[in-house]
Amino acid sequence: MGDQSKAARFERSILPHLDAAYNLARWLTRNQHDAEDMVQEAYLRAFKFFDGFHGTDARAWLLTIVRNTCYTWLQQNRGRETTVSFDEEIHATESELSNPATLVLKSGDMEMLKMALEELPVEFREVIVLRDLEEFSYKEVAEIANIPMGTVMSRLARARERLKRILCVRLKENL
Amino acid sequence: MDCKSAQTLLDGYLDGELDPVRNLEIENHLHRCARCSQSYNDREAIRAGLKTGSFYFKAPADLRNRIQRSVRRTAKAEASPDWLSWSWPGVAVPITVAALVILIVVPFFLRPSSEEFLTQEVVSSHIRSLMANHLADVPSSDQHTVKPWFNGKLDFSPPVKDLANQGFLLVGGRLDYLDSRPVAALVYQRDKHVINVFIWPSDRTGETGAAPVARQGYNLFHWTGSGMTFWVASDLEQSQLEQFVAMLKGQMPAT
Q1: pLDDT per residue over B181-234, tens digit each?
Q2: I want to staple A124 with a disulfide (CB 3.0 to 4.6 A). Which of A159, B45, B152, B245 is the partner?
Q3: Residues forming beta bridges with residue B174, ordered by sequence position
Q4: Helix spans in chain B (H)
Q5: pTM of the predicted protein model
Q6: CA distance to partner chain B, nearest, from residue A148 (Å)
Q7: Other C-beta atoms within 10 Å of B27: how many?
Q8: Predicted ipTM?
Q9: Beta carbons of B57 and A15 less than 8 Å apart
Q10: How far off is chain B from A123, nearest CA to CA, in Å?
C-alpha cells in the first residue's frame, strides 16, 4: 500500500477524533497551548504507528497515544501537577450539608463543578474525562489509562467523592 | 449487603457496569439505606452535570489543518522505502551518515565540473583582456567615473572601490561576458601587474570566504557577498592578491 493512501486512510479514520483528543489533552494539561502541542505530537506518533493499528476503535487507540504523550509531558513538568496525596480527613465536612452536589448543580453553577474537576489530581481527572465525557466502558478506560479494571471503578469512586467534597467546601465558602 | 460494600459498588452501579445479581443487591440496599441513597444521588447529580456538554473542550479550528499539514509532510518524508516507516531509531544513524555523504562528498565530485568551467572562463577572460589591448572601456582612475559608466549597460551596479592609497590603482572598467551573462570587469594595477575583478549578481545569499585557485600561472580568488559574485584574476603573487581581496571585501581597513 502506498504512502499516499496511508495518509488518506489515516485522515479518514483518525482525524475525525480530533475533538476527543483535544478534550483529553486539554483536561490533562489544563491549558490550551500545551494541549494543542500534545495533540499535534500525538497525531504524528499515531501516524508513525498507524501501520500497527488493526483494531476497530480508532478513538480509543488515539486517546491511548494522547494520554501517553501527555503523561510524558506531565512527568517533565511535574512541579505544576497535584498528585494523589489528598488527605481523606475532610470527609467529616460532608455530613453538614445534606446534598451539596445536588444543590450546586440545581443552582446551575457549572463553573464551580468545572473548577472542582480542574483541581482533581490528574489520575482522577483522567478517569472522569474518559468515563463521563467520552463515555468509554470501564474496560476501555482500563486499556487507555493502562490500569486494572478494578482500579477504574475505585478511582472513579474516589474522584466523584472528591468532586463532591470540593463542591461542599466551595458551597460553604459561598454561604 | 452492608454500607461498606455498597459504597464500593455504587459507581459501578451508576455506570451500569455491574452484573445483574449485584445490581439487584445494590437496589435493595439503596431502598433501605438513606445515607447510601444520598451518596448515589450526589454522584448521579455530578455525573449529570459533567454530561451537560459545557465541559467538553472542542479543538480550535486551525488545529485540524495544522495536523493535516504535518501528517502529509511526514507522509511525504517517509516516502517510498518501506523500512523507513518502522524501526525509525534503527535507521536514523545510517540516514545521518548517508546525508553527510550526500552533503559533503557528493558536492566534492560535482562542483569541479561546473565551477572548473567558470574558472577557465575567468582565466581566459583575464588573458584576453591583456592580449587585445582592450583592457578598459572606460579608462579612469576615478571610482565616480567608473561606477556610473556601467549604468544602462548592466542591470546591476557593481561596487567600485578606490584603493590607490593601498597601492592598487584603479585603471578602469569594461563590460565582459561570463557565466552566460554580461558582467562588470574592474581593472586595477599594482606595479606592472594587472588585476581583473569580475562582478555579477549572485543568486546565493550570505557570504562565502574567498577561495584561492591557481591556473596557468595566474592566481584567482572567488567569493560571494552582498548579493554579488566576485572573481579576481591576476599574475600578482598570491599573498598580495589576498591582501587586495581582503580590502575589496572591506575586511581590511583602508589605511
Answers
A1: 899 999 999 988 999 999 999 887 777 888 888 888 899 999 988 889 999 999
A2: A159
A3: B185
A4: 3-14, 20-32, 34-50, 61-78, 88-100, 106-131, 143-149, 238-248
A5: 0.56
A6: 14
A7: 11
A8: 0.85
A9: no
A10: 17
